[in-house]
Amino acid sequence: MQQSYRQARLARRIIRRQAATRPMATLYGVIQQPLDELVYRLSSGRTTASGWLAGLEIAMLTTTGARTGLPRTVPVLPLPDGDRTILIASNFGRPHHPSWYYNLRAHPAATIVLGGTAREVVARELQGDEREQCYRRGEEVFPGFSSYRRWTQREIPVLTLDTAGGDNDQLP
Questions:
Q1: What is the mean pLDDT of the chain?
Q2: How many domains would you assign to the chain?
Q3: pTM to 2 decimal places
Q4: Is there a domain that residue 172 lies in?
Q5: Beta partners for 73?
Q6: Is pLDDT at 172 greater than 60 in this prediction?
Q7: Domain holding 131: CATH number?
Q8: Rounded to 5 degrees, what angle do the CA atoms 123, 127, 133 make?
Q9: Which residues in the chain belong to E strands, given as ranges?
Q10: 42 located within any domain
Q11: CB–CB of 108/164 below 8 Å?
């Protein structure tokens, strides 16, 4: 379970709040993924830079490339919710969706490694009240989601990753 912003230690709250500013979101948009991947490898999968600095548990999401069909692994901020995991495709408030979103639209089956445990999942995009409720939950953990929503004109997608073999076999 992700620790809420208010529950995090002061230093970690400051780091999370900085990511909600345009200059830092721009910087993090460039360095976060490679830095998280490097720390993840160096720590043998125990942590990421975001986990260590901001106290956010980062998951590694492996999707199938929408155009290439090749496996693509990226760090994402998961919001565990019972048996499912919620992902917010904010892309730091940029005008376009992150590549993993397009990959999941084309190929909803994926693998997520969270807390050292790999799970086969199927993505489903949320709509309406369910989407809004999950987005607000994300804002409780990471205040940057509030800023990102204001900065972009696109509707930021919210997805749920359900355990494969459940009722949801694909994105609508």
A1: 92
A2: 1
A3: 0.88
A4: no
A5: 62
A6: no
A7: 2.30.110.10
A8: 100
A9: 59-64, 71-76, 79-81, 84-88, 109-114, 117-125, 158-163
A10: yes
A11: no
